[in-house]
Predict the structure of MerR family transcriptional regulator.
Amino acid sequence: MEKSADAFRTISEVAEELDLPQHVLRFWETRFAQIKPMKRGGGRRYYRPQDVELIKGIRHMLYDQGYTIKGVQKLLRENGNQFVIAIGRGDVAAVEAIAAQKIAEAEAKGEKSGDEEMLVGTPKVKPNRRFFGLSRGEEEGPVKDGEKLTRENRALLQETLFDLLECKRLLDQVR
């Protein structure tokens, strides 16, 4: 018999669902104050559905995106739980909505809009020409060095990245 979507989950159920050891979940509770399972007698943990969604987002950021714990803590502090949950789900529309709200709040305070800053992170290494399938003599296409991607193209690239990560996750499950 399967539990309903809004039922509480035990630590073993969450660990199995997310393919994580239980001790990692306990460790993350010490590093991320936002993860607060309900504890019953004897210290048994029961995770709410929103806790599980947040843990999925944290797992995605740490394991798939390559963020450090401090990096994810910073994202949570600056953008809130819903941002990390949306990234974990691959919900580009929600990520964009949260980013737009953050930009509007910054502009209302008279701060720099932050539109130039990527909210998801910056690449650690600049991709070389082979990454794009270009040899030395070929032109680089519509985006030249120094030019920025439009918000729409950035969203499309992010959506493609989420799709690829989901494919990777499915392939890893099959192995």
Residues 76 and 84 are 7 Å apart (CA to CA). Residues 151-174 form the longest helix (24 residues). The domain at 9-174 is CATH 1.10.1660 (Multidrug-efflux Transporter Regulator; Chain: A; Domain 2). Confidence is low (pLDDT under 50) at residues 113-119, 122-134.
